[in-house]
Amino acid sequence: MADKFLAYTKRNDFLICIDSDGCAMDTMDIKHFRCFGPCMVAEWGLEEWREEILARWNEINLYTMTRGINRFKGLAKALREIQEKFCEIEDLERLEQWVKETPELSNDALERELEKADSVCLRKALSWSRSVNQAVERLSEEEKQPFEGVGKALKKAWRDADIAVVSSANPGAVLEEWDLHGLLEYTDVALAQDSGSKSFCIGELMKRGYAPEHVLMCGDAPGDLEAAKQNGVYFYPILVRREAESWKEFREIGLKHFLEGSYGGQYQEEKERQFLENLGER
Known about the structure:
Elements: H1 2-7, E1 15-18, H2 28-44, H3 50-63, H4 71-85, H5 92-101, H6 107-116, H7 120-138, H8 150-158, E2 162-166, H9 171-180, E3 189-191, H10 198-206, E4 215-219, H11 222-230, E5 234-237, H12 243-260, H13 266-278
Parallel strand pairs: 1-2, 1-4, 2-3, 4-5
Helix pairs in contact: 2-3, 2-7, 4-5, 6-7, 8-12, 10-11
């Protein structure tokens, strides 16, 4: 994990951090529709209530203020609702405890936890997570596309700013998808699930000497906004169902504000308001 930060070299005075799934890559919906939700139904034998459970999974992970929640946090939340409404989830409290207390939410961390003490729910959570990764790998290249305008925006931004992928997704999938569409060409470092939280990653990158007003987090989920706030940096939202429009504005207006020092104040406030309203938060 530390190697990526040690190897990182600052090129410019400006830094733009960009989330991957649902922000740069149009992969978030399909991964939840075809991988995350269905794998949970299969792992816990929830076929009897499949339609309602999958609809609620998508609501939690895509269309409300919990959009972009870590997979294990989303799983614990969904299973708690399933237990309260449909059926008993054996050993659920153990998963909830681990999610609450672990400093690292990843498959590797879950494996280490299971080495300490066995748990039915933790074993199933790990099996589910691995199944999700396998299902994601089976998606065709045509189903893993960047949003319209991402390539043009990155190419323009990279001339004057360092570009860091800051994602909580599987690192292999992130690198594969960005490389497939030539986006790594305009990227200085790719940080994913194995590098730490988004807030941590931004903070580590800032140690290279970026002023807070010269750092921007570009994301589609409340966790991205929170990571920006925790580090005292700016936030640019990619709005759900308005992604192409958001990237066009970033390329034509947002980037100019950022590089010219006029991003803070009115423009930042307007962007944050639009973001919260778009996810149903008034």
